[in-house]
Amino acid sequence: MDRVMRLALGSVIVGLGVLALKLVAWRVTGSVALMSDALESVVNVATALAVIVALRVARRPADANHPFGHHKAEFFSAVLEGVLIVLAAVFILREAWDGLASPRALDAPGLGLAVNAVAGLINAVWAWLLIREGRRHRSPALAADGRHLMTDVVSSVGVLGGVALAVATGWWVLDPALAVLVALNILWSGWSVIRGSLSGLMDEAVSDGELARIRRIIAESAGGETALEAHDLRTRHAGPVTFIEFHLVVPGATTVEDAHTLCDRIEAALMDALPDARVTIHVEPEHKAKHSGIVVLS
Q1: Check: CATH 3.30.70.1350 for 208-295?
Q2: What's 3-201's CATH class?
Q3: Checking CA distances to 16, which of 72, 150, 246, 287 falls within 20 to 30 Å?
Q4: Alpha-helix residue ranges (DSSP H) falling in 170-237
Q5: Cation efflux protein transmembrane domain location, by residue (predicted)?
Q6: CA-CA distances (angstroms) from residue 89 to 37, 102, 159, 206?
Q7: How far apart are alpha carbons 266 and 221 in whole angstroms?
Q8: What is the chain's percent helix, strand, coil content, to nearest 5?
Q9: The sheet that has 229-238: what strands, in order across it?
Q10: Domain extents for the chain?
């Protein structure tokens, strides 16, 4: 089992532990705001399980029905996470409405706030780890899970401060009001997760910075007297994999063997910089040159 899968399994364990703590905090206080915080952790556990399934599917090798692999399965996990977040927000808003209509004092607020603070600290550490490792391993599912957990941490901090203020002032209506703010915050989080995942499902190109890096590698590795230019460069992401396609113009007298050797050199350079790259090169004779795109360094 590799590190990405271990982190995914760890998210389930951590999520269950945090959920248990937040449920205790809610039960001892009866706070609607703390209930909303606990409900968001239910979503965390569900999406952590979805991440595991998505990672297992994404790692299946290419087959006859999926010749490009199963890498996009991770994006579906992130979309599911966004949908679950939205459903949780709707439920929180319904409970908050009842609390606004009939605000009530909280039971044992000190104990509840302390327990919730411990849960928030655990979430903060784990969210930071998931975001860092998700970027390192180019896993959109892990990164999305980490970003959502970080919004959960921000919500928890706001809830703790607000509930403490309600206890100090006796303004118990602050409790359901905070739950409304939590719901709106996670609604925004859900939309952000869905939007980021849809960009991958729609074959969005790599970032401008990464595209410039790819262009530079092609120009340098295709240099010399063999290649003339590269054009019609296209890129897309699918989970951790980057697909790169372009046309390479060579002199008409270039042999098939020489062109093949050149393409192997370019592919090796790209895959050295992007280990999960899938490179497709279409070789063309010089009269196909467009005199645009990537100028090969001589």
Answers
A1: yes
A2: mainly alpha
A3: 72
A4: 174-201, 208-221
A5: 11-202
A6: 10, 20, 15, 32
A7: 5
A8: 70, 10, 20
A9: 277-285, 241-250, 229-238, 294-295
A10: 3-201, 208-295
